[in-house]
Amino acid sequence: MSWTLALRLFRRELQQGQLLLIILAIMLAVLSVSGLAGVSERLQVAINGQAAKFIAADRIINSPEPIATEILEQAQELGLSQVSSMRFNSMLFGDEGFQLVTVRAVGQGYPLKGEIELSSGPTAKLPGEGELWYENRLARLLGVQDNPQDASIELGMANFALAEEIRRLPDAGFNPFASSPVVLMRLEDVGKTQIIQPGSRVTYLYQFAGDSGALDEFEEYVKPLLSTSQRWVDVQSGDSPIAGAVQRAERFLLLASLLGIALACAAIGIAAQRYCQRHYDVVAMLKTFGASGKQIRNLFALHLMLVTLTGIALGLVGGRLLDIGISSMLPEEIASYDTSWWRPGLLGVTTGIISAFMFSAYPLLRLLAIPPLRVLQRQLEGISMGAWLHLLMSLAAMALLGYLYSGSVPLTMTVVVAVCALAVLLGALGFVMVRVGHSVGMKTTNPLQLALAGLRRRARQNAVQLVGFSSALLLLLVIMALRQDLLDEWQKQLPENSPNYFLVNIAPEDEAPMAQFFANNGILTTDIYPVVRGRMSAINGEQLITYSQQEEGVEGRVGIGRELNLTWRDTLPPNNDLLEGEFNTKPGEVSIETKVMERLGLKLGDELTFTIDNRDFSVKVTSVRAVHWETLQPNFFMIMRQEDLGQFAHTSMVSFHLDDSRRELVVDLIKSFPTVSVIDVGAMVNQLREIVEQVSLSLTLVLILVLAASALVLFAQTEAGMATRQRELAVLRTFGGSGWLLRSATGLEFALLGMIAGFLAVVVAELTLYLLKTQVFELNVYMHWDWWLMAPLAGGLIVATLGLWRCRNLLRQSCSQLLQS
Amino acid sequence: MRMRFPRTSLRKKEENPVNSAIKVSRLCKSVTTQEGELSILNGIELDVKPGQSVAITGPSGSGKSTLLGLLAALDTPTDGEIWLDGAALSGLDEEQKAALRKDKLSFIFQSFMLVDTLTALENVMLPAELAGVKDARQKAEAMLERVGLSHRLGHLPKQLSGGEQQRVAIARAFISEPKVLFADEPTGNLDPVNGTKVADMLFEMNRESDTTLVLVTHDLTLASRCSRQLIMEDGHLSESDVGVEESASRIEQPLKEAQA
């Protein structure tokens, strides 16, 4: 019985549009989660490629020259699997053109972790003899994208064939921000290219994998043997100057989806309430005709399940479309990465199920508890269990979903706090409206007083309308503000003529010719900064430990845990502000960046010990600096004097600005100085901006849906109050209220409601933005004073227009029509 | 036409009320309000024989609807006992009461109480489906034909007039072949012409099915068509002097049928 009846009820209600609201709400939740998760998946992969490259192994030794064979033998003895490879830049020549590429020459066994993904799917094979595996954009850059397999390719002194197209390498293979495309070849083929000559800039990579005990033992053994130019890598720490900006983009996207979830939850909550209220009579009638509790439970469980499934299905389709839509607007390097769709899909389904059931649980319980006597006594509503329980459950559902989705506590908490704030404000407002408005009756001819009286009478009903409307407005404000702030932030990072290229790994002997190169081409650069890599080993003589050691239970002061880029300089760098002390007046002093100072709990006068090339030396903290990381200048945590650092081997870095029209100079530069690494910051930042623009655009789409949904809620809610409103109008008309009075009172009532919603939205939006900017995005906090006027006005206007339009028929009717119907 | 046996749970307490469709003894109902205990029904006694039609009239707030709710096993009395078709209601839980309503009772309401998203046919099918009747659809079609709505099977309640909606409700009430039919102001929301039409149909089908009818109404004309008239006043039920009115209704009825 239940099945056929549930199906029939579902079919009929669907046909008549009764389920539109709740299905739309569920769909919205699933759509925003699955769609935006799809996009963020792509971005995350892209970002991971840049900020924390997968290393295709557990540990890597990174060296400019081959390492001693004893080290490799030791690894073997410890039972570690290992594979060697080389990385170098070279010019690759095709029939039509040439292109600078990054060559990865890999030995048998690569990769130790992960797998190579070709356009035809994952593979366990490696390039054969004379084969190059290439990225799609290389084929395009060479103009051979139509049949790359037929192109004859020269690399150094050898000929190669472009055999397979790479989608992704487990390490560094996919990197939309890299300036040169990657080709993969056999390690054995490197010899015949004759590219590697004495003095060639090559990175030898030794990858290791195995159990953590053996790895630790190996690390202990190998670390003292490494020179400063050799690096021990676990999960590469992103020293990239734009890592912070990338992280913000990622978080913005997460936040957007989280807000989408929060909003959809509100929508589902309201829709579920409406859904259940509509069925009160049906339940009472069914019970009267003798339906058992089980029959009714089954009926509505099945019905709700059908509703949820429909919402989820539609949401998945919509989410996929959203994903496709946004991806089509993203840069091709990101869009071309085909992420699997099961995770966003699964997330969407989970969201749909959790939100639909958690939010409808309470209204459904009330529905099932409707007494049959309601058929005779229409006002009966059955038990009213604590609404706070419902609120608590809804919050828990939202927090759970948020955490499931973002994995970020601060983000989730911010959203929860915002929702609580909105709930508290609404509760307080409802209380005030009921209490204060008590004296205001209907005995008035002033439209404002009449409107206030109307608001008070409908206080409870209005509270629900306010939830929908102010949360929609709130989200709109938050997203708009954050988007603008992020774009501004990135704009600030790239003001006209600010550096857009970084050169790192400049060998000391290249410094002078490079300066000449810049002078010849009229390029202005920042100061050139020497870079020495070193580890801080002690503070005031106390040996430092790493976080992982601390987790293992080792007691001691926690240090930085990785090597730092150190520099020397006698004057304060431009864009740095001196906060305390005096900058490096004499040898033996160090100037520290303020955040590191805070993190390590340092103070002026502390003695820091550094270990470089197995030699220790100590310096005293004499000044503290604020560093503007976003300026894209070379920036450093620690600045010392040449007298202390100059004794160690160093490379240098510099940044400069180059107009796009002169981009080919970079190719000349790389040809002249093949050992130097170029980072094209401009391209990265532009891509980020593009991404945020696209994401914001897609969010705008979602928000339009949201606004439509809240308008729908508003409609559904006014529908419920229409009968009482009609009676009131009839009475007012009968006692001589003019058309003008009634119209203005009704309009004013809606306008006031909208203004309250707008005001609430601004208050909570400022709070939310404060939390987000301080806890998550690290942006400057400021008040949006214009909103405090604009949002209530806009809210009032929108709601008044909608409300008047909704009541237009009632307002047009004559007294007798009103009384009759 | 129906020889159904009571369900297991209803078999106990089969005492003297066996011969009554409804038997009520010392029935009291009071509710707790802010001003204290408020007594609505005071020691009601009632005995309705199978096939009788009983009208309960009385001023607003006299307790008519409360009594109806108690008789129909929708509400629980404060004191006293009710037997429906020989089975005592006291001691039954909600599920058992629902089973009893499903098997023996049916209802017609002032506000029709049709499911507004289901068609006329589907509304009539509901009680039969709840009872697990196999040919619910055919039965419902036949019932709608009897109330003259065979051309309106696929219409939604909002596409029907008030009179038509109540006729659907009548068809729904009789599909489960009830022993007792409770009607709460069945013509209260209808204009006089439609009200009379609906009442004619109700009494006719009631007579044909030999159902016991309990009708609560303000409408004295409607009440006069029942075989017994009871007056509810301040929580007390009393038999009214039926002679004249009853014979009047006996004369009226064929006349109205001829006019219809």
From TrEMBL, chain A:
Keywords: Cell membrane, Membrane, Transmembrane, Transmembrane helix
Domain ABC3 transporter permease C-terminal span(s) in chain numbering: 255-372, 701-803
Domain of life: Bacteria
Membrane topology: Multi-pass membrane protein
One Pfam short name: FtsX
Residue runs in coiled coils: none
InterPro entries, per the entry: ABC3_permease_C (IPR003838), Membrane_comp_ABC_pdt (IPR038766)
Predominant cellular place of this UniProt entry's protein: membrane
Localization (cell): Cell membrane
Signal peptide extent: none
Transmembrane segments: 20-39, 252-272, 299-321, 341-365, 386-405, 411-434, 463-482, 695-716, 750-772, 787-805
Name this protein carries in UniProt: ABC transporter permease
